[in-house]
Amino acid sequence: MEPPTSSRLNSRKRRKDGSGPNGAAELDGIPPKMSRRSFGLREPAPFSDEVEIDYSKPYVRVTYEEAMRGTPLDRPVRVYADGIFDLFHSGHARALMQAKNLFPNTYLIVGVCSDELTHNFKGFTVMSENERYDAVQHCRYVDEVVRNAPWTLTPEFLAEHRIDFVAHDDIPYSSAGSDDVYKHIKEAGMFVPTQRTEGISTSDIITRIVRDYDVYARRNLQRGYTAKELNVSFINEKKYHLQERVDKVKKRVKDVEEKSKEFVQKVEEKSIDLIQKWEEKSREFIGNFLEMFGPEGALKHMLKEGKGRMLQAISPKQSPSSSPTHDRSPSPSFRWPFSTKTPPSSPANRSRNESAVTYDISEDEED
């Protein structure tokens, strides 16, 4: 039986020919979709002193070849991994995942060292031993937890827990006066190496905390922790409070600057829009003005038409010479009393009066 995660670790390679639905390229090595169900356990892993072991059966270790081929379900390969597991992180979880998947049928036992052993051989821990036990218990890959695990594995301990293999990274672990505490395990053929996760470790996390100590101290003081609980002196406490106030003032100034920038940007955008609208309206106004009052504008044509109409009204045109003339009956002439002469006439009317005079004389002669 293969480990459940072996199919997930397959490399994904894109096919050059063809594509999947919706234009997505098909991938090689992708496992089929699984049904929606919970893969984790519903309860934390038990402690070793809470698990019954049938000592009636003899303790016979399985070989590496037998373990790789797969053992019966009632006889899983018992793999042991130990550590401090302080500030339990993803690097710890990945190491336990590798130990769990070393063989097709694996029962993983994890040993956690106590505070006394850790402080003597390695150094002070951030989490207490009970906190570290509890963190390992809730890792999904762990089947059993050994509290107060030994620093160096003895044959008696291996036989008591019926351990077949020990899993740990292959880097020599020098401690307790030994260059490698797993040397005798490797010589016995019981050691199986795992890979460390680069970029994360308990020491790295502690280094970050120490590097950013002021930030964390100020944050926890703001959350309500006392200076005594944080082991902060009176002067540093006042300094942190002052820094917090200064940061608040800086934040306010920054917020005001950002708001002012936004306001100025909005004003600029509105001013640009107003200028563009003003230019459009001004062009329209100038065009209308030129259309009305320009050299060839409508006003000039209106004035010309009005002038022509006025001139026509003042001096109407004479009738054409070709039109027929109507003969007028001569009007009787008026004579001055007691005078036979015609009344005086203007030089302009002499031509017309001459005919009248002639007419009058003829009438006198007839009388």
TrEMBL record:
Pathway(s): Lipid metabolism; Phospholipid metabolism; phosphatidylcholine biosynthesis; phosphatidylcholine from phosphocholine: step 1/2
Gene3D superfamilies listed in its UniProt record: HUPs
Residues in coiled coil: 239-266
One annotated GO molecular function: phosphatidylcholine binding
First-tier enzyme category under EC: transferase
CDD domains: CCT (cd02174)
Region feature Disordered, mapped onto this chain: 1-41, 313-367
Stretches with biased composition (Low complexity): 330-339
Residue ranges with Polar residues bias: 315-324, 340-356
Catalytic activity, reaction form: phosphocholine + CTP + H(+) = CDP-choline + diphosphate
Range of residues in the leader sequence: none
NCBIfam families assigned: cyt_tran_rel
Protein's recorded name: choline-phosphate cytidylyltransferase
